[in-house]
């Protein structure tokens, strides 16, 4: 995973738990997942607004 070993991933996880707390980690993961999903959908299916703006400027 990104060229990191298990030791580095473990240290990052421990630091994240210390900083955010064990209750906040699932909320952060959920928010990150929703953000990435929305970003991926916008890239694969551009909406009509961007198409109409580019057509009206020509």
Question: Overview of this structure, please?
Answer:
By secondary structure, the protein is mostly helical. The protein has a domain at 7-44. The chain is built from 3 helices and no strands. The model has no long low-confidence stretch (mean pLDDT 81).
Instruction: Give the CA-based shape.
Output: elongated
Instruction: Tell me the series of helices and strands, N- to C-terminal.
Output: HHH
Largest sheet: none
Identify the quaternary structure here.
single chain
Counting DSSP H or I runs of 4 or more residues, the number of helices is 3
Structural class: mainly alpha
Task: Give the DSSP E fraction (strand runs of 2 or more residues).
Answer: under 5%
Low-pLDDT stretches:
none
Give the helix level as a range of percent. over 70%
Give the integer mean of the pLDDT values: 81
Termini Cα gap: 44 Å
Rg on CA atoms, Å: 19 Å
Question: Secondary structure elements and their pairing?
Answer:
Layout: H1 6-20, H2 24-44, H3 48-56
């Amino acid at each position: 995973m990104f060229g990191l070993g298990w030791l580095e991933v473990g240290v990052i996880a421990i630091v994240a738990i210390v900083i955010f707390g064990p209750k906040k980690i699932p909320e952060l993961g959920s928010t990150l997942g929703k953000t990435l999903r929305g970003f991926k959908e916008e890239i694969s299916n551009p909406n009509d607004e961007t198409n109409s703006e580019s057509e009206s400027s020509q």
